[in-house]
Amino acid sequence: KQEVTQIPAALSVPEGENLVLNCSFTDSAIYNLQWFRQDPGKGLTSLLLIQSSQREQTSGRLNASLDKSSGRSTLYIAASQPGDSATYLCAVANSGYALNFGKGTSLLVTP
Amino acid sequence: DAGVIQSPRHEVTEMGQEVTLRCKPISGHDYLFWYRQTMMRGLELLIYFNNNVPIDDSGMPEDRFSAKMPNASFSTLKIQPSEPRDSAVYFCASSLRVSGANVLTFGAGSRLTVL
Question: Is B86 helix (H, G, I), strand (E, B) or coil?
Fold first, then answer.
């Protein structure tokens, strides 16, 4: 069974810092990997999707990388803002249908 | 589109009672997923449907849980009888397969508390 781990569980940074969130998975035979954002009391919002054949995806200040051979992905957030404060979840699809989620990294960006 | 709509948003019930959670997926989406989120276990997939047909229910914890999708615009997740350990946030998500990938749109969730 695919196990997805996210480190750290929580992170606090001052506004303006660049930061990296980490995700690791045990089964490298993945279909794709997605990063989501979850605000308190809300559902999940998809941020980036990386297909298994891709190495990275970018959207604005966000950049996600994928290294299948080592079972790792990183989410890089440039010039962090207080509005980036949320929980970020990594999810892996092995069959292309259902996602296996990590427990998330809770990010706090302080003004 | 109003997105994925879940009801109720909050439910407080007593142990032993029946609970029904409802979901209206995005029109045109052919996949529907039910997830449960707890602090201890994170997000767990319970069941998913494709074109209203249950495909994988291996995540359904016990026979007390059942899910139906009678048509493309409605799904229910029922717990009978409910127990305190069922307390969690239950999410419904729908998707349309694009370029071989499912990009899920999540509802706001139904927070269930069983006393």
Answer: helix
Task: Give the start-end residues of each E strand in A39-110.
Answer: 44-51, 56-59, 62-67, 72-77, 86-93, 99-101, 105-110
Q: Residue A111 CB: number of other CB atoms within 10 A?
A: 7
Chain B interface mutation, best of A7, A51, A97, A100, highest count of B Cβ atoms under 10 Å? A97
**Contacts of B84 by beta carbon, 8 Å cutoff, 6+ apart:** B15, B114, B115
Q: Consecutive 10-residue runs of chain A (111 residues): their mean pLDDT?
A: 92 96 94 93 91 94 96 97 97 82 96 94
Q: How close does chain A come to B15, measured CA to CA in Å?
A: 24
